[in-house]
């Protein structure tokens, strides 16, 4: 039986300008409408599937603020302002920024949204400033843009089954100010459902929730900037060496405290920022109460020596090294660690969007089963543990149906296959036995910094 540990990394940086209070980009709010709730709610259809969601603290605090109407961003404010009261500068902002969506999957399917984009960038607007382009939009067109800017990001569950959303999509154009308020009602409803849905999934034992250091700057610079010399020995270094492990410990402590407040118990798993690790951070992770962490296969390859290669069919050739958890660190400060299969993870993140859902899911499951079969043959029947870790929100706008057809095919196929079981990261790492007293410093990008 091959064990698959799937971790969806849900993340956004902290967008709030602490001087003005404004959130400078809308991605927390927009991805909450399209991905954050729906990704975990979908699992109710597949009770046999277990997954791990990594919820970064900087995302969670912003989700809370938007759900409580305590956060503001300019995109939101201008989407709600009456279209006939927009200033010339605000009209230009809307025309410039309200088409931030994947054109083939999120704009082209909606005739009115496509028409508005063509009006901005077609023959009449090419090469013109946003202000000049906006001058060509009527008040009614701007109001339609205000609606479509948000409507295109609404969760597929709502697009398919919510009467309010279905009515707006069917209407298509000629929206009213009341339509905008209706859409705002849906927006707040979705925002307020996100955190409770994760809590419910965790409570029923289907999902494990893990965390990351509270802020993104790499745990602070992996506790000593001289660690960079191990990966780039000829590099110019800062004149002032940065060595503040107490900052790293504080970020971990704050992450644990937020997780406890929101979910009622502390996390036992950590996805380090950018999957970045070093020897100095391992004991801090252990001291903060974490039992497992995870990073990329390239870190394992650089730690143990031999690299990982794949044959012409894309199957990993060093299965016995990668498809198992390890214990990282020295006595008194050890943490179990899973290393993700980079190639399999990236197939979901970057390749399968152009495939049919059934073919993509079938290919993925075949690769997992084949990898597990070969691992068992090489280890006297031992079960492989394959770690699949990738961003949980960024890929789906490139997929048909915002990724839901693929995910349904994937979860359904994994549920039904007799040779595969899905496990949480804690379950996957519980069998760790092989020791790595030292770990190569680097991130999940190229295995370095």
Structural account:
With 449 residues, the chain is of the alpha/beta class. Strand 8 (326-328) and strand 9 form a beta hairpin. It has helices at 27-41, 57-67, 74-80, 88-97, 103-107, 111-121, 130-135, 139-151, 156-161, 163-171, 177-203, 219-222, 228-231, 245-263, 281-287, 297-304, 319-322, 342-351, 357-378, 404-416, 425-429, and strands at 2-10, 22-23, 51-55, 72-73, 207-210, 269-270, 292-296, 326-328, 335-340, 385-391, 420-423, 434-436. The mean pLDDT is 95. Strands 1, 3, 5, 10 and 11 form a 5-stranded parallel beta sheet that branches. Strands 6-7-9-8-12 form a 5-stranded mixed beta sheet. The chain has 2 domains: 2-66 and 206-436, 7-stranded beta/alpha barrel; 67-192, no CATH class.
In short, what is this structure?
With 449 residues, this protein is α/β, with parallel strands linked by helices.
Number of helices: 21
Report the structural category. alpha/beta
Query: Which radius of gyration do the C-alpha atoms yield?
Result: 23 Å
Shape: globular
Which residue ranges are poorly predicted, with pLDDT under 50 across at least 5 consecutive positions? none
- The CATH topology of the largest domain: 7-stranded beta/alpha barrel
Q: Largest beta sheet, briefly?
A: 5 strands, parallel
Per CATH, the architecture of the largest domain is Alpha-Beta Barrel
What number is the mean pLDDT? 95
How many strand elements? 12
In angstroms, what separates the terminal alpha carbons?
Answer: 36 Å
The count of domains is 2
**What percent of residues adopt helix (DSSP H or I)?**
40-55%
Report the portion of residues in β strands.
5-15%
Q: Kindly provide the name of the CATH class of the largest domain.
A: Alpha Beta
